[in-house]
Specification:
The protein has about 325 residues and is mainly alpha-helical. The chain contains twelve helices and no strands. InterPro entries: MetI-like, MetI-like_sf, Phosphate_PstC, Phosphate_Transport_Permease.
Amino acid sequence: MSAADVDDLQSVVRGGPAKGGVGDRVFKGFATGAGGLILATLAGVAIFLLVKAWPAITASAEDLPNQESLVAYIWPLLFGTVVAATIAIVVAVPMAVAVALFISHIAPRRIAQPMSYLIDLLAAIPSVIYGLWGIAVLGPAAVPVLEWLSDNLGFIPLFEGPASSTGRTMLVAGVVLAVMILPIITAVTRSVFEQTPRRLQEGALALGATRWEMIRLTVLPFGKSAIISASMLGLGRALGETMAVAILLSVSGGISPNLIGSANPSTIASNIALDFPESSGLAVNALIASGLVLFALTLVVNMAARAVINRQVRI
């Protein structure tokens, strides 16, 4: 043992920190710089959006698109974005958790390994393909379901109808988004479920718990923060998805709680993608202002998720 190692060991025994070498200082500086770069990039994006959106924020309603206020212009887009992302999360999270549990704790290895590859492969499919699949396959196949919802659950505003004859509805768009975010949520939760300590699982089984009771009492509590984190990652993908929604959704521009009709609000991301190439002047600033709202929404959602995760860790 060298003299420097002896000094470090004596420092630790005395309760003081060991002196870092050159490698430690370089790593600390690199990590600090990387963290600062991320914060600077985030601040730069926010400043850019705010500066470009400011002319639309301060302009009168007569000068903005459709001669309406900026709030009236963005609100339907924000409503459509939140509705589509909410449907996606409600559909995708239970399915993703179930798939992750099946792969990590139920399926034989010869089945689990290929199935995990197939789930991960869903993330590599371009969003345009998902949009085309929604129009050509899922939309027409969903028409009987939409008609059943309208006939039997029409008293609920969400399924008031009349049902769309093409399937290009907000409900179908949400299901397509759910399929798109499924591999993200599944991959994160599966990796954490597989890290559940074996002693906890074996202890639960030794005490007479069934497989489901073992999963409910050990695996799910251990992976609770991972489920929340994965859900927020999927929600961020759903909030910002562009092409699949732009191709699939039949847009009317108004606000409607009806999820199975032909009249649907657009989303912020798809509206920017469709209108930006032909816009100029204040119309561009209005589109950037809607992007600023989407940026703020995503930031708030991720901050809320981080607060929930930190609370779970402390508990």
